[in-house]
Specification:
single chain; OB fold (Dihydrolipoamide Acetyltransferase, E2P); 9% helix; rod-shaped
């Protein structure tokens, strides 16, 4: 009887040891491999495989049936993945993708807007959708944009306010389409009236001729002396008779009329022996 009890106890002890060993084995089983993220641009994709270009190297992953795929945050399939998309691949072994998150490539807006150019001239023609400027011998026609900025005399305006003959400035980024038009109303300049100068009153100097030159003479009337030039237009008489400059002699009495005190308009001379008549 004692032997049988001993056998039963031994059997129970062995079974308990086996159970404890199983629990310990389960507790010490290796942990699941951690997930690793891979990012890049899709350079190649097929139904069951994807390749990313990351910096200077590429890496490929298998995409089994259970791979979770998203594009822009929405559920997708391998057919929705396109070359050029940015992508994040999650893999536990670096070989097989458990999840793929893709994003369409974005177009970056240029940081610099196209430069605008100004064109000036006189409006030679204008219609609802085009304007022509003339500058010298050169003409340029611009299409008018759908909603251009138009100002005339610095006030908001429409195409109907633009008139042939106006000076204008057209702003265009491509030299073909006007995005802005500024018209300037021509101004009429009042002619400048030159002041009317009243001719100086003629002055007459009477004296004795002391010198005669080919084109002038000198008179003395104490204590004054005056010299005058004479021209072909100067009226000369000697003793009341029409004469020339060669008929004027030193010693003659003369009355010289001049408007500027320099050029004689009329000379009336009398021989020294003849009593001078009133001029």
């Amino acid at each position: 009887m004692a032997a049988r009890i001993t056998t039963i106890l031994f059997t129970l002890t062995m079974m308990l040891g086996i159970l404890v060993g199983i629990k310990i084995g389960q507790a010490e089983s290796p942990a699941t491999e951690p997930n690793t993220n891979f990012t890049g641009v899709i350079s190649q994709v097929s139904g069951d495989r994807i390749t990313l270009q990351a910096s200077s190297h590429t890496i490929s992953f298998a995409m089994p049936r259970g791979t979770t795929i998203q594009v822009s945050g929405h559920a997708a399939t391998a057919a929705d993945l396109k070359v050029g998309m940015g992508a994040l691949v999650i893999s536990t072994d670096g070989k097989t993708a458990s999840e793929v998150r893709a994003y369409p490539a974005t177009t970056t807006k240029p940081t610099t807007e196209p430069a605008a150019h100004n064109f000036t001239g006189v409006i030679a023609a204008v219609s609802a959708d085009a304007i022509t400027l003339k500058s010298g011998d050169h003409t340029t026609t611009f299409a008018i944009a759908h909603a251009p900025t138009i100002r005339v005399a610095d006030h908001a305006a429409t195409v109907a306010d633009l008139k042939v003959g106006m000076s204008a400035l057209v702003v265009s980024t491509d030299g073909k389409t006007a995005s802005e038009i500024r018209g300037f109303v021509p101004t009429t300049t009042k002619p400048v009236t030159q002041p009317t100068t009243k001719p100086a009153a003629p002055q007459t100097f009477t004296g004795t001729i002391t010198q005669v030159r080919g084109d002038g003479l000198t008179l003395v009337s104490e204590p004054h002396t005056a010299s005058y030039a004479f021209t072909h237009a100067t009226k000369i008489t000697v003793n009341g008779q029409t004469a020339t400059g060669t008929d004027l002699k030193v010693g003659m009495k003369a009355a010289v009329t001049s408007t500027d005190g320099k050029v004689a308009t009329e000379i009336k001379a009398y021989p020294a022996t003849t009593t001078k008549q009133n001029p």
